[in-house]
Amino acid sequence: MTSNSNNNSPFAWLGLLKWSLAYSDGTRPTSEEFKPMSNEDMEFLEKVMKEGIIDEGERMKEILRSLTEGVESVMNASVVEGEEEKRKEISEDDMFDLFQELRDIVEQIDYARAFMAMGGITFLLGCATTEGNIPKSIRKASLSVLATMCQNNPPVQLNLLEVGHMPQLIQMFFDYSQTDENADAVDDSVREKVVQTLSASIRGHSMAEQIFCQNEHGKTMLRIGLGMPHASNPATADRPWAKPSVQLRKRSLFLLKALLTADEVTSERIMQYESFVSFVCTHEINPEWEEEAEIREMGLEMLTELIARHHVPVNVPAAGTIIAQHKNSIASVGVKRIEEIKCLEESSEEREYAMVELEAWEQLMF
């Protein structure tokens, strides 16, 4: 990104430092020769201070304005006379950099809400999901900003619900999933971003969690993200989807765990996701299917927490019942895996890495 002028130079504070040093050479206390500041010096100081401080609110407006122009020009299939130069000014790389800068700003909750008030959510959601010539990198960058904005930010999460973001993002996930008509549609890098954004917009917001859990398409999305069989089609019930990327499986399991271990979870919700809990018991914790240790650890932690809730006053009895159906399988895999880890060389890096999984297994089984 290039600055519009020298007024916003990140090195403006150096001028203030030089000005200050000019009045103190270090040889004597400045108070000995103190003189009132002249009007000229005062104006200079105010100018430097103003130029050295970035107004994040104004900067967000500038970014939104530039991105709006950039997206409009990209979506315009035909280049009208006089517009070609504008399109060259805002390249895909420049737009991506602006999204990155915007994401850094909206990490602050208050700035996220301010950007929402500017209409930022509508823009980001449209940029990510609208059909057209928008580059895939820009769609993913839009989702990254959305995920950052709504993380632990209830007003932003509510605003997303009000604009109907769930169906749009779930459909976007399907658009980049394999179908009989389009075997080349799969792009896990996009699907990862979709699940990340949905997860950030749902977790910790009871209304959003409830709405998502009632959405059958949302369940299908999670089923695909985890790599579960085609349970909805009896003819292909035993045939799994093409195994998703590690990051997509990880994000999908993270969202599932959040939904099933939330403070307001009910037995009804657990039963809605019975097949998912069973899949974790039979696949996600088994190294013969899931080679990624971090995913196995997450699955073990989820099962342990569900069992723990089964024994407390405010319990979820359905979870313990589902897990108990697979106790023999869990025990078989667990005993074997514990022995494998304990047989690793004592001081080896592999054993040190596997200790987290060992502790997770021991907590679940003992």
Shape: globular
Describe the sheet with the most strands.
none
Number of helices: 20
Q: Could you tell me how far the N terminus lies from the C terminus, measured between alpha carbons in angstroms?
A: 56 Å
Overview of the structural elements:
The chain is an all-alpha fold. Helix content is 66%, strand content 0%. It contains 20 helices and no strands. Helix 7 packs antiparallel against helix 8 and helix 16 packs across helix 17 (293-309). The termini are far apart. Residues 1-21, 24-30 and 232-237 have low confidence and may be disordered.
List the defining traits of the structure above:
366 residues, mainly alpha, globular, 20 helices, disordered N terminus
What topology emerges from the helices and strands here?
Layout: H1 12-22, H2 39-52, H3 56-75, H4 84-89, H5 92-105, H6 109-117, H7 120-129, H8 136-150, H9 154-162, H10 165-175, H11 188-202, H12 206-213, H13 216-226, H14 246-260, H15 267-272, H16 274-284, H17 293-309, H18 317-324, H19 327-342, H20 349-365
Short account of what is shown:
The chain has 366 residues and is mainly α. The chain has 20 helices and no strands.
